[in-house]
Structures are given as structure tokens and as C-alpha cells.
Prior knowledge:
Its main location: membrane. Belongs to the bacterial solute-binding protein SsuA/TauA family. This is ABC transporter substrate-binding protein. It holds the Pfam family NMT1_2. By secondary structure, this protein is α/β, with parallel strands linked by helices. It has two domains: about 35-115 and about 220-325, Periplasmic binding protein-like II (D-Maltodextrin-Binding Protein, domain 2), CATH 3.40.190.10; about 115-215, D-Maltodextrin-Binding Protein, domain 2, CATH 3.40.190.10. The protein is built from 13 helices and eleven strands. The chain has helices spanning about 1-20, 45-50, 55, 70-80, 90-100, 145-155, 180-185, 195-205, 230-235, 235-255, 260-275, 280-285, 295-310, and strands at about 30-35, 65-70, 85-90, 105-115, 115-120, 135-140, 170, 190-195, 205-210, 220-230, 290. The chain has a six-stranded mixed β-sheet with strand order 2-1-3-10-4-11, with helices on both faces. The protein has a five-stranded mixed β-sheet with strand order 7-6-8-5-9, sandwiched between helices. Strand 6, helix 6 and strand 7 (about 170) form a beta-alpha-beta unit. Helix 11 (about 260-275) packs across helix 12 (about 280-285). The protein starts with a helix and ends in a 20-residue tail after the last helix. Residues about 1-25 have low confidence and may be disordered.
Amino acid sequence: MKKLLYLCTIALLAVLTACGSKSTSGETPEEIIIGYFPNINHVAGMVAEEKNFYEETLPDGTEVSYKYFPDGSSFMTAIETGEIHGGLVGPGPAMNHFTNGAKINILAAGSTGGTVIMARKDSGITSPEDIKGKTFISPRVGCTHDVQFETLMMREFGMKSDRLNGDMKHVTGKPATYAQQFANGKVDVATVPEPWASYIEEEGYGEVLIDTKNVAYGETLPAAVFVTSSDLVENDSELVQKLVDGHMKATEFIQENPDESKTIAINKIKDITEQELSRSVIDSAWERITFTYEINPDYLQMFANSSFDLEFLKEKPDLEGLVDKSFIE
């Protein structure tokens, strides 16, 4: 009887221990879904898709599919609901959702740079001071490019958007439509992610007003970050490592094979947006971007503080726990 009781106790302890432990590996889903935008800052996603890098790092037979997003808000919703397993998004949406309680982690960078402030041709804008009273466009309210632009204008020129009872009117739209918005005279200024800045410049719809290096956090802030859910990190770290490995392989391929990567970007952007960009546009855009998976959390915190200053965030943010660099080290 005592022996039976002892065995039952051991069995019960084993069950309780298993229930209380954090799983570090699990069965890889039959399908992995990766998200990214049709922007040059997201070329790592395009290259990974074209070269099947995730298929190389994931277990044999895993199906990998891709979903393309027009803005960071829809991407972050897809991460939070489990619609996608990971992918590339601007740091602004990732930080905003994290501070609002989203269980997500930034695991790596995708690129830095690539934001350009453009003025419409014949708008009469020849300097940043001329933006007062004009209409500017960004992909989304509070997105990365919006924060970079509004931070610069507020700090350097004392201007705010109409959202803050300021003297700049703000509208939103997809970056691929900015050239037409300029052509129609609907907007005067655009905070533009590449390659659309170089496209606008080449086609003569607008001119560079503030280049990447002079935009707020222009060369230091990650323009794209690789994100997944905290639940996936906690419950299946082996799968997460395989995803990050695929992303790093794509980034290293871009660094070592820029010409082929440019061709991939041209073809993927055409497939997704139905717009074919010239090689000269891509060459120009490439000069404003650095492709890297290395990430510095300090720059993200400074950027988040700017989001608070602009009242995109209700409380001053603490990004402790958002970035997990362990998968790239």
C-alpha cells in the first residue's frame, strides 16, 4: 500500500512539474506565415521569399507563405491574433502596440534609414519653414515615418500637426500613391519611405526637401524590425530561432549580393503593387538604406520618447522587455 502511494505521489509530482514548466520547443506548424511591406526597407522579406531561406532553416516539409501589409497597424493586429508568425514592420507600430499591452518582441532589425521628406513640385516649398499651413501625408497616424517627420518639425521649427492644434494639416495614404497625390495637388509634403521617394524624384512629381541623414533618427533608427509574439518566444524558442535564422540569412544575402537583391526587390514590388520601378530608382533608394539585423534598444527608447512628446502615446513609454537580442547573438 505504501509502495502504491509512493508511486502515485511521484506520478502526480511529474504531472505538476510538466504543467508548471516553460516549453522551449514544440511541434512546428505545418504552415508558417511571414508578413512584410512592399518597401525597400523590407527587402529581407522579399529576398527570404524568393530564395526560400525560411524553408532552409525550418524543418523539412514546412510550408512557408507570405502576407503583404499596407501599414503597421494591420501588421501588428495580425501578429497579435496569430494570423502571421512573424515578419517585418516599422518600429513605430511595434513600440506603440507594446506600450498598449501587446505581447510582442522585437528580435532583430531589418534595415536602417530610408525616410525622406519630399515637397510637391510647384508647391512653393523651398525650405522646412515653408511647410507652415501646408498638407502633409504619411502612411499612418503615428507610424514610424510620421513620428520622424513630426519630431523634426516640432523640435527644429516649432510646428505641429492639426492633430495637436498645429499649423500642418495631416492626411494618410499608401506610399505607392504619393506620386499621384502630388500630381493631383492634393498634398504638399510627404514623409516617404523608399523606394517611393526616389520614384517621385525621378518622375519629377516632387523634390527632396530633407534627406534621410537630416530626418529625425534618420540613420540610427531601425526602419524595419523583425517581430513575433511573446507567446511564441516563451513557448517555442526553437521555432523562433529558426525564423530569426532565416531572416539573418536573407539579410546577409543582401549585404553580399546587392545587385541580385535589387532585381528581386523590383520584381516583388511589381507583383505586390503592380508598379514597376526602374533600376535607377532602386539604386538611388539603396544609397539611403543600410541592411542589418543588428539592433540597439537605446535608439528605440529615444524614438518612443518622441512618440510620447507628440502625444501618440498616453504615458511616457518604458520599452524594457520589448527587444530580445538573444536570437541574433
